[in-house]
Amino acid sequence: MENKTNSIQRKIIHIDMDAFYASVEQRDNPMYRGKAIAVGGSPEGRGGVVATASYEARKFGVRSAMPSKRALQLCPELLFVRPRFDAYKEVSRHIREIFGRYTDLIEPLSLDEAYLDVTADKQNIGSAIEIAKLIKQAIREELQLTASAGVSINKFVAKIASDLNKPDGLTFIGPSSIESFMEQLPVEKFHGVGKVTADKMKKMGLFTGADLKKLSEQELKNHFGKAGTFYYRIVRGIDDREVQPHRETKSLGAEDTFPYDLTLVADMEIELEKIAKTVYDRLQRYNLKGRTITLKIKYSDFKQITRNQSFPFPVGDMETIINTAKQLLAATWPEDKRIRLLGITLSNFGEITPIGDKPDHPGQLSLFDFEE
Length: 372
Hints:
Layout: E1 12-17, H1 20-28, E2 37-40, E3 50-53, H2 55-58, H3 68-74, E4 79-81, H4 85-100, E5 106-110, E6 113-117, H5 128-143, E7 147-152, H6 155-162, E8 170-172, H7 178-184, H8 195-203, H9 209-213, H10 217-224, H11 227-234, E9 251-262, H12 265-286, E10 290-299, E11 304-315, H13 318-330, E12 339-349
Parallel strand pairs: 2-4, 7-8
Antiparallel strand pairs: 1-6, 1-7, 2-3, 5-6, 9-12, 10-11, 10-12
């Protein structure tokens, strides 16, 4: 199997902001500087979740997506800060402007990271490493924040590289060293390999990329399904995916985790109406209608289910969204159930005419998506 990128060797940069939300809060509020802070939900009541932790908090083991109560146990001095999305989005606008000085091929992944293809950069600098340095310098001087950068010939390796020397790191992995680098990489460091898959691999005696490389593509597919082909290619440094500045919107939605479990259907319906309003506003902004409405429910025991209804034509009006969500909820017999999260998603879109060409993904704010 040949690496197609050899014929057109790309120059890819992955930029990842360092502890983004927390760093913005520390920049804007002197009382948080040098302190262990967590941006996210309060540990009071049932407790929220940490969105981002400062590096001072990470020393105690506090991590993103960790329950706030657990974070407080690890770090009793931890300060909890409510997120200010307007502030983060304003920073993101500035970051996008900095990126745009060097290339228009920018693929946002989330609020704090993006891929850049600088194979043909606007300023004819020619060196991806030099461009990464200039971007990091501009972010530091203009925003008083730091970012880490990974530079390589494809997206997968660039993303891994950006995480190697955080914070404020810059790591280059050139073509000649990619395979040896991938061979030494622990399987849990492979982007896309979660804890369950990593545990399965280790039980099979697969601890590094070199171990994965011993298996044929078919053997990997037998054990890991379609992902096996991806592992086979990537451990050899093969990743032909292009940086996509205008990714197609596959679905659009919103969800909410509640401070306390909902047990009354009336309360559930009230929350569904709020969520539906958010979804409707986003549909209006992107001029979208979908043929499928999906309801997501997570119970107090963390069991999660989804229910959906499809229509023969695209829908996007508030009344249909709310009524369908309520009907899907009723079909789950919610009486006497304890529900901690509800979500509504529309998919299977008809005509797609995004306003401003900004992608939107439920559960994750795009780097340059300015909706709450």
